[in-house]
Amino acid sequence: MIGVATAVIFAGGKSSRMGEDKALLPFAHYPTLTEFQYDKLSTLFDKVYISAKENKFDFDCIVIQDNYTEDSPLIGLISVFETLKAEEVFILSVDAPFVNKETIEKLLKHNESKFDVVVAESPSGVQPLCGLYKRSILPLAYTQLEKENHRLGDLLRLANTLFVEFDEDDPFTNLNHPKEYQQALKTFENH
Q1: Which of 49, 75, 162, 174 lies 20 to 30 A from 12 at CA?
Q2: In a domain, 136, yes or no
Q3: What are phi and psi of 129, to 5 degrees?
Q4: Confidence tier at 45 by pLDDT (50, 70, 90)
Q5: Nearest to residue 78, comparing CAs of 67, 86, 69?
Q6: Which domain holds residue 134?
Q7: What is the pTM of this model?
Q8: CA-wise closest residue to 131 among 154, 165, 158
Q9: Total domain count for the chain?
Q10: Predicted local confidence at residue 2, as pLDDT
Q11: Region 20-37: what's the mean pLDDT?
Q12: Which has the higher per-residue pLDDT, 188 or 48?
């Protein structure tokens, strides 16, 4: 295990560009992308949860449902800390299957108490759904919610955030479009 006990897979997005719920798409040798991510994170963390609007999964997992009607990663983040007692959680988007153990370990080795968030930054920008979030972020998150600003990037700029630099974008490839999904399937077939 890697020092942090809890991970949460964010699988509540609308998947509008994919045309179907990407969290439920088959992936590698798994019935769904969510199960693929769940299994991977279960080898690294003591507890793995899934953040979503509803429990749409047909495998044994604990789903943290959003406590608010709005639909955003900010809502997911607030709901996670309102639901769990954990002081810190590692968050990963369901549609980032290339984030591996090495990427996660590199992030977590920078975990210091002075930071509210430790998050990946690649050449294409900040990766807000690949990082360690601490309970200390909650007051700021509530303030952003009150202002109806759901952008995690803005929250990270306001918080005491450590941006950990990565040299390439590949690990953070998101499967947003059918073409990206098909390409990822081919890549994992060759592993």
Answers
A1: 162
A2: yes
A3: -100, 35
A4: very high
A5: 67
A6: 6-189
A7: 0.95
A8: 165
A9: 1
A10: 66
A11: 94
A12: 48
